[in-house]
Design goal:
Elements lengths: L1 H12 L3 H12 L3 H6 L3 H5 L11 H17 L6 H27 L23 E2 L2 E2 L1 E5 L8 E5 L8
Helix pairs in contact: 1-2
């Protein structure tokens, strides 16, 4: 019964006819209680609009033929070129965005080389160097073209590098 109430709610309050049609076909045709609640053919006939004057079949077909001829002569521009133009514009925009993003990814901004600061000579002097409270002999190394200075010490007694 809860399912019946749910589907009846859908049928009454959904604004879209295709959803109402789906609800009726999905549930009402399978449920015997809801099938009995559906209107019968005899009840619906009185609600159908009936023509006020019966027309002869030849006149009806003549009118239909005239309307078809009018529709053939009144050719409206096809919406296809517009749709194709929209797709072409969308594709072109996508390609443009792709190219620009790839450009920024693979060609990053190159920094201008900065002028090296003037090398002022720094003098320092090691007076005493100890490793584990023992005097050690320091060795100073500065690689060519680098601002780094490496200092390491070796204890003269046990020849271990610390």
């Amino acid at each position: 019964m809860a399912a019946c109430k749910f589907y009846q709610f859908l049928i009454r309050f959904l604004p879209l006819t295709w959803l109402k049609d789906w609800a009726i076909r999905h549930h009402a045709e399978a449920c015997p209680v809801c099938t009995r609640k559906l209107a019968q053919k005899e009840e619906v006939v009185s609600l159908l609009p009936l023509p006020t004057k019966p027309e002869k079949a030849q006149i009806l077909w003549l009118r239909i033929h005239q309307r078809l001829e009018q529709e053939r002569t009144q050719t409206e521009p096809s919406p296809r070129p517009r749709v194709r133009l929209k797709w072409a514009a969308a594709g072109l925009s996508f390609c443009l965005v792709l190219i620009v993003s790839l450009f920024f990814i693979f060609y990053p901004e190159k920094k201008k080389p900065q002028a090296a600061p003037e090398a002022s000579e720094v003098h320092f002097q090691i007076i005493r160097f100890q490793v584990k409270d023992r005097p050690a002999a320091p060795v100073i190394y500065k690689p060519f073209g680098s601002q780094l200075i490496f200092i390491w010490a070796q204890s003269p007694k046990n020849n271990s590098i610390n």
